[in-house]
Batch of 2 targets.
Target 1
Amino acid sequence: MALAVVFALLLALGSALLGRGRRTAPLAGLLELVAVSSPTFWIGLVLISVFGFGLGWFPVVATVGFGALLLPAATPAIPVAGIISQVLRQGLDDAAALPFVDTVRARGASHTRLVVRHTLRHAAASSITLTGYMVGSLLGGSVLVETVFARPGLGRVALNAIVDRDVPVVLGIIVLAAVAFSVINLLVDLVADRIDPRLETEQAYA
């Protein structure tokens, strides 16, 4: 799941940055719409067909090695990346309209430095917070991903326990997922406060 989160953030960041231009914005919006609208199992089947059987870049049924993790991690990351990219791109556009941008440009900062050091920090807080909430979607989608790729994991254990009506195992997995979700969102809130100091200021006045 950690690799899926990393993939989602990288895909969202790349799509948001490339989609800010007038020429690339429609294409980025279309890709985000397709990513959000596509079912997880369909994305997994497409990735297997193209990169597994077609190009042969990644193993299809292997369970050992880093390469065997890439397609299962990318499958749930693509829909999540589409949502995060939309929020991040809107945040970058809003941050670019703030008065401090003119001040930074007047100091001679390049466009890359302006985006990376300033506007991205303002836009990243909401995207990181959204990422914490989307972890729940990744946890729920693990059942489909592990079924499509025939990988052993907690999702398949939960599915088998539900089919077998093994209540203690189901309850244990639910509690474990709830604890993981809570801890991850706590860490996300701490990271968001560090990235955007305005959040700490608002909390202090509150």
Target 2
Amino acid sequence: FPGATVPFFVGRQASMDALERALAGDRAIFVVTQRDSSVENPDENDLYKFGVLGRVLQVMRLPNGTVKALFEGSRRGKLLATKLDEKEYLAQVQPVDENAFDIDLEKLKKQAEMVRELFKNHVDQRKIKLSKEILDSLDQVDFLQVSDKVSSLLEIPGEKKQQLLETLNPETRLQQVLDILKDEMKIVQLEDKLKKEATDQISD
């Protein structure tokens, strides 16, 4: 997600060649998720249309021949075309202009604050191991970036994360994150209720 710094692993030769090309230049790359990870040589139809533009911060070569790279996302991008050129992947990408949407800033600020608080409660209730630095950084993030920050930290299926990535309107996206957190809260409450009922039955 934009604003997130995440590690990823590169194993295919074409992807490694593309990474080497980026490292030799300005380190800019476009990261996009493959629909089916079992496809060995994916073409354009095997990739989602939206990904993240950013840059490679660090690279570590592993003993098994793969590469671990640290990626910092900067903004959304739409994949227009791909080609395999001299055994490396090249992509034509259109950056997404999120300023094009007419949004209610005051409403967005209130929603962002709700998301911050609900996410912290979610981490506490689920006993999710996140460092204090990460949680504190959520308070420092601009309200327009809260949805992406939380989305990158949520333990939800990849398809849901992709849906959030493809939701371009910041107001709509923040509402979706809010709905996910509210649903998670309901699940926790239901689990607690069932545990209490089970304990009461044992006591009887």
